[in-house]
Design goal:
The complex is a heterodimer of chains A (about 325) and B (about 200). Chain A is an all-alpha fold and about 325 residues long. Helices cover about 75% and strands about 0% of the residues of chain A. Chain A has 11 helices and no strands. Chain A starts with 6 loop residues before the first helix and ends with a helix. Classes of the chains: A mainly alpha (about 325), B alpha/beta (about 200).
């Protein structure tokens, strides 16, 4: 991994740092400007989010600096924590206890080990085939038929979204792209940057200009204005980042649009689950953002699509 | 130091979100009482307390469970400073009340599970009368209700391997035994205080 010595990396780190400094400055100015209580609460939440962004960017860069292993561990922990939040919210029964133990302590780590070893063929079927057959078997052995299908569907789904889908992000590091050797970490950066910036800009556009809600009973904050404004801006940013990727500018635009639309789908779908369970956030680990799954819900959907498109059109294996 | 380390591990593993609602942490002796669904309850509740309070708080726990292995004995004696009581076949001679009163003195707070044993169901079980007798001997003590959420899924009755779900602990506003309050009414009121924290 030539990540540290690459001059592109330094440019990116500088750019991200500059954006964060600007955001912190803006937050500081807003804090001294607001007059009413409601505004103060919004700005306090904004500042908490910005502070958390500093931490998240720092962690992400540290993980990338260590090369493959660091990123793998980071995404593995994210998966683990997201799954923890997911299963906490979905009622399982006593009979699922042993299945859950397997899910958390065997299947999840194994998936990341396979990704780390670049065992693409096995990593791609471990969860949808083998875990899919194993988990219901283990639950059936525990002998509780009540709501059996529903319980298994929940565990399956949690595993697919939180572990299988997320693991496609670090899988990018294993792709062999001609002429792009040793720089795959930048591809991971591209995915995460476009995805997360899209989230933030959709939030900003929605807060300022949002009028027409897309699915009010699912997510009151998602509006057409927010989605389109955020999507276009994030896609433009992705296009502007073409020089860190193996893509031509128009290809970077297309990839960004895929990431943004898939990310929107992820946010919406995971919101539907939250509404059903009657909660606002999956957790409370990241101040101002909610839980890990609230932060990476869009990545869950964007990562597999981005991975497969890149693999199909640009990689030799 | 061992205590701090263990409390940190317990907090990390249980992922417990801790809420103090209409009650503030306080160093004076109190009785913390909670619903009981898992062997981890005492450890997690104990680790949810701020360190300086934790050092002065002793769980009341079943002797038969906590002396069975060396590790448990070490933890209960050296780390939690648990007050171990008999659960089965209690006679006038083995009544745990004088022991508890003697052990807590004027200095220590207690962690108590008034249901007596772990309750597998979703509802909080009936409270045993121990809490009432304790309060009659020490009417000066504040009773702080706590509701422990989800730990029964982390480590259900009969399982030995925990799964890492996130649990939650809510502390609620303290209550006291009123003068002349009948036993049944007091126990119902105390149970209600725990139930009210559920889902909050």
């Amino acid at each position: 991994m030539r990540f540290l010595t690459d001059s592109k990396t330094l440019w990116l780190a500088t750019g991200v740092g500059a954006v964060l400094v600007l955001a912190s400055l803006a937050g500081w100015i807003l804090k001294h400007r607001v007059k009413n209580d409601a505004g103060r609460a919004t700005v306090a939440n904004l500042n908490a989010r910005i502070k958390a962004w500093w931490v998240m960017c720092l962690v992400f860069f540290l993980a990338m600096l260590t090369g493959g292993v660091g990123s793998l561990i980071l995404f593995g922990l994210l998966s683990f924590w997201a799954l923890r939040e997911f299963i906490t919210l979905t009622p399982t029964r006593r009979g699922d206890h042993r299945s859950l133990f397997w899910v958390f302590f065997v299947i999840t780590p194994l998936q990341y080990v396979l990704v780390g070893l670049h065992k693409y063929g096995l990593a791609i079927i471990l969860i949808p085939v083998y875990a899919f057959l194993f988990i219901p078997t283990r639950s059936a052995l525990a002998g509780d038929p009540e709501r059996f299908l529903e319980r298994n569907a929940k565990i399956q789904w949690g595993l697919m979204i939180c572990v299988y889908c997320v693991s496609h992000a670090p899988s990018l590091l294993g792709l062999e792209i001609p002429g792009y050797e040793g720089r795959n970490a930048l591809l991971l950066f591209f995915l995460v940057a476009v995805d997360q910036v899209s989230d933030v800009l959709q939030y900003v556009w929605g807060k300022t200009l949002g009028r027409h809600r897309i699915a009010p009973s699912i997510s009151p904050n998602k509006t057409w204005e927010g989605f389109l404004g955020g999507a276009v801006c994030a896609a433009l940013l992705g296009t502007a980042l073409w020089w860190v990727t193996p893509f031509k500018p128009w290809q970077a635009l297309g990839m960004s649009l895929v990431i943004v639309i898939a990310g929107f789908a992820g946010g919406l779908t995971m919101s539907a689950i939250k509404r059903d369970r009657g909660v606002k956030d999956y957790g409370s680990l990241i101040e101002g953002h909610g839980g890990v799954l609230d932060r990476i819900d869009s990545l869950c959907f964007a990562a597999p699509l981005f991975y497969h498109l890149t693999r199909y059109y640009f990689a030799v294996r | 130091m061992m205590a701090g380390l263990l409390a940190g591990v317990a907090r990390l593993l249980s992922g417990a979100s801790i809420r103090w609602m209409d009650v503030a942490p306080d160093l004076r002796p109190r009785i913390y009482f909670a619903n009981h669904t898992s062997h981890l309850d005492a450890v997690v509740l104990w680790s949810a307390l701020p360190p300086e309070i934790r050092a002065l708080t002793r769980p009341v726990a079943a002797r038969s469970y906590w002396i069975r292995t060396r590790l448990r004995r070490y933890l209960s004696e050296r780390v939690f400073h648990a007050i171990l009581i008999e659960r089965e076949g209690i006679t006038r001679d083995t009544n745990p009340l004088p022991l508890i009163l003697r052990e807590m003195g004027e200095r220590y707070s207690l962690i108590l599970f008034p249901e007596g044993k772990r309750n597998p169901g979703p509802e909080v079980g009936e409270f045993k009368s121990g809490l009432f007798h304790l309060c009659r001997s020490r009417p000066d003590l504040e009773l702080v209700p706590a509701y422990i959420d989800n730990l029964n899924r982390v480590l259900p009755k009969g399982e030995f391997l925990p799964v890492p779900l996130l649990s939650g602990i809510s502390f609620g506003p303290p209550l006291r035994l009123l003068e002349g309050e009948p036993k049944a009414e007091f126990l119902a009121r105390a149970r209600e205080a725990v139930c009210r924290l559920k889902g909050s």
